[in-house]
Design brief:
about 300 residues; mainly alpha; two-stranded antiparallel sheet; 13 helices
Length: about 300
Amino acid sequence: MFTALLVDAALGWPDCLYARIGHPVTWLGRLISLLDARLNRGSPAHRKALGVVTLLTVVSAAALPAFVLQEVAQQVSGRDWASMAVVGIMAWPLIASRSLYDHVAAVARPLRMGDLTAARRAVANIVGRDVSALDEAGVARAAMESLAENASDGVVAPLFWGALLGLPGIAAYKAVNTLDSMIGHRTERHEAFGWASARFDDLLNLIPARLSGLLIALACPRPERALRIMMRDGHRHRSPNAGYPEAAMAGALGVRLAGPRTYHHVVAQEPWLNAGAPDPAAADLDRALRLYAIAMVLAAALLAANGLMSVA
């Protein structure tokens, strides 16, 4: 996993590769779309049962080939360090550290220069809320929340499950996370069909979300404040997990996050994280990116230490 994080931080997922072969998440997405179209019908109980079948099918389609690839790599390389490197390179596409940084940096640049229109366009690529009326603070807040939440979902959680269960673990996690993002919504179509995927995603992110908040807190100058805000406000978020890294980010930067936002012309009255603190400004988004980078270095150090102990 250290190798996977290192390669991803250096390269991301190059456009030339995406143009030629797509990405493992898009492959999973096509399978999920197919199963959604074929199986998501009937009564709520029927949909819920077939949603469980879909979850098992997609996870198996990801984890079983990953298990075979890992076994082959370990048989061929024959040495612990070599097999770690080979499996790490195979895990590289399932980490999104560079992509996350680049997408949030694309919001920070125009926001820093006062180009609110361009900043809104950029933040619309990473959040689902209505961005048309967001001011500078609203854009910065949306980007920071996405950075904190996806630091967990897109980086720490895959690394966590990969460190525990190897290539099959990281592949299975990405399958569940992709299922949740596609069918784990409380809509008429997916309330029952995506129930199992959404609940399983919540379970898999239980530890990584809190670990992400801890890494963010340790990366800031006042970790005790960030940890206090995380423990006080993390559970107030509508998500059982996303509130912890977001609250840690709010405490680390001394700003307030979450709060009311608009989805499809409907205002969702979400509670504030670190209520009473000022709204973030453009400069705070740059600080958030630096904090994220330091947190990822800390994650890499933990993985390296774990790798050294495992082959000692």
